[in-house]
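User: I'll paste a sequence; please echo it back and then give the predicted structure.

Assistant: Echoing your sequence first, then the prediction.
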Amino acid sequence: MKQFDFYLIVGLLLICGLSIYIFGFGAEDSTLLQLRISKILCAVLCGGALASAGVMLQNLLKNPLADPYILGTSSGGALGIMAAVLLGYSSITLPFYFFVVGGAFLAILTVCSLGGLSGKSSAVKVILAGVAVNIFLSSVIMLIV
């Protein structure tokens, strides 16, 4: 039932956004309202996506403390930012985003491979590997700084 409520709310938000985009507003308030409504809908959808990703991560690892900081994903993204800036992509462009996502992906790939190194992977091994990768990547970032 809770999953149905979540999909119902997301569907209603998407329908509201599409109807505002298609039909618009009156001439006097259209620009202001379109800017505000689009930003609000984008913030709600992005926040919902981040919240659902966090819930899936906590459910997968069966640990309510699991988050991107403990698993090293945020440190991998930060190292990707550092690499992008060192290579000259200081403005927010498409290659900059590839470096950020690539750094986070390589960090979580490293965590998953270290967590399952001995054959069987468990949530505790993955979390401990995530802490180790997080500390290592944070020290590399500090070394670069």
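Residues 30-61 form the longest helix (32 residues). The chain has six helices and no strands.
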